[in-house]
Specification:
Helix content: under 10%
Shape: elongated
CATH topology of the largest domain: Jelly Rolls
Number of helices: 1
Strand order of the largest sheet: 9-11-16-13-14
Structural class: mainly beta
Largest sheet: 5 strands, mixed
Length: 451
């Protein structure tokens, strides 16, 4: 969801400001009329000598246009002038369309002369610009064809448009809905599915990816902006899977197995069976979506977003024998492919000493925490994790002129210290950040890549 463009005054106040400014301006510059040709380019430049919009102090330029009722014109602005605001007024100075930044649609309800205003985004908004005007035909309903873009219009009286989509072959399909004027929302219904998407990655455009079976579906184009008023492009395409990839969108997941799935608005649920007490790691990786994992089972109820770095998720937990349910979804509701992997490390034992490669279980002994001696035989870069589902872990490393503490470095409320360590002995202190002083934990030490 994007942040709305903030105007200094209301829509009506802006219109009034423009009316006074335009009607009080002698010699309004006039461009060649848009007289029914399919496309036209208009050029101009905002300078310090351009007329001033009394509403916000910005400078502007105006083009006279002859428009025809029933025609739809798409206007796009480019050039050095950044964030230009476009506004359309009729010859009586009434606001017809806009204000919008960078793009505007012109849909006059009567034939006649209109004034298309271009203003800077601030008092010092100067620079040359170009306007591309193109006559287009809106399709606001009907059938969607694969790989054929549909240009649609949402108006004040029509806040959503519905289309029919027929799928003849099973596969992965992408439905994209983009707009220069709207914060779009695309929805899909049919075949037992009810999916939707608002924003794709960092964009306010929408992208919905779904595995579809042959059948009939309904696609809805709408927007978060209410009332919705603007144009959009809608397209459906089939998306091939990477070579060798088969989708597993749920079911049993074996320890050590890697599966690929499709994340969308519905969490994909998997079951993991653990045979003995162990440290369990589950990782969700994707180059397309912001991964989000949830795991529930005997004594475990945890979730994670970005612990594996970038936008990947990883859950590390001390688990007992039993069945655990893993849900893979996305942090922002977007859709895309992901891989899911799992691994376990058996508990090496309980004690007051630990070496690299071992997993030691323990239990807090009071508010002062529990001490464990770390023995390093070979110098290197090591990663030390303190993991607990019972408390907010706080890990401290002392020795060899080092005194380091970490709270949540391993993601969630788990701790991680990663440092180069010389040969020798070090003191590890496992504590509860809140000093409650009880609960089970595991310590792991691994040789790692620096950085």
């Amino acid at each position: 969801m994007r942040s709305s463009f903030t105007l200094p005054f209301s829509r009506s106040a802006l219109a009034l400001g423009l009316v006074v400014a335009l009607t009080g301006c002698a010699g309004v510059p006039s461009a060649n009329d848009f007289n029914g040709t399919d496309a036209r380019r208009l050029q101009g430049e905002i300078t310090s000598s351009s007329p001033i919009n009394i509403n916000d102090g910005s400078h502007y330029q105006v083009f006279d246009l002859q428009l025809t009722q029933g025609e739809l014109i798409r206007v796009r602005q480019s050039g050095a002038l950044e964030g230009a605001t476009l506004t359309l007024l009729n010859e009586r100075g009434q606001l017809v369309s806009g204000p919008r930044q960078g793009a505007l649609h012109l849909a006059p309800d009567a034939s006649g002369r209109y004034r298309l205003g271009v203003s800077g985004n601030a008092e010092n908004g100067y620079g040359p610009f170009e306007l591309q005007l193109e006559k287009v035909t809106a399709q606001n309903s009907g059938a969607l064809l694969l790989d054929k873009s549909v240009y649609g219009l949402l108006s004040l009286g029509q806040s959503e448009n519905t289309y029919q989509l027929s799928i003849s072959e099973p596969g992965l399909y992408a439905i994209s809905l983009g707009s220069d004027e709207l914060d779009t929302v695309v929805k899909l219904e049919g075949g037992g599915l009810e999916l939707g998407n608002d924003d794709s990655a960092q964009s306010t455009d929408s992208l919905l990816v779904a595995q579809l079976q042959p059948g009939d579906y309904r696609v809805t184009a709408t927007a978060l902006d209410q009332p919705a008023e603007g144009t959009y492009d809608l397209q459906v395409s089939r998306r091939p899977l990477p070579e060798g990839v088969e989708l597993t969108n749920g079911g049993e997941l074996s320890i050590g197995q890697t599966v690929s799935g499709l994340a969308d608005s519905a969490p994909k649920q998997y079951q993991l069976v653990v045979a003995e007490p162990a440290l369990l790691r589950v990782r969700m990786s994707s180059s397309e979506v912001d991964s989000y994992l949830t795991m529930r089972g005997p004594g475990v109820d945890v979730q994670d977003d970005d612990s594996a770095g970038d936008l990947d998720a990883e859950i590390t937990a001390l688990v007992q024998p039993g069945t655990y349910r893993v849900e893979a979804t996305t942090a922002d509701g977007s859709a895309g492919l992901f891989t899911l992997t799992s691994s376990v490390q058996p508990i090496s034992g309980r004690g007051d000493r630990i070496r690299p490669g071992e997993v030691v279980a323990g239990r807090l002994a009071g508010e002062q925490g529990t001490q464990t001696t770390l023995v390093i035989s070979e110098p290197g870069f090591y990663q030390i994790d303190l993991i607990s589902a019972d408390f907010d872990a706080l890990l401290r490393l002392e020795g060899g002129d080092l005194d380091i503490e970490d709270d949540d470095g391993a993601g969630g409320t788990n701790s991680r210290i990663a440092r180069y360590l010389d040969r020798g002995s070090y003191q590890l202190t496992s504590k509860d950040y809140d000093d409650r002083g009880n609960g089970s934990y595991v310590l792991t030490v691994e040789l790692a890549d620096e950085g």
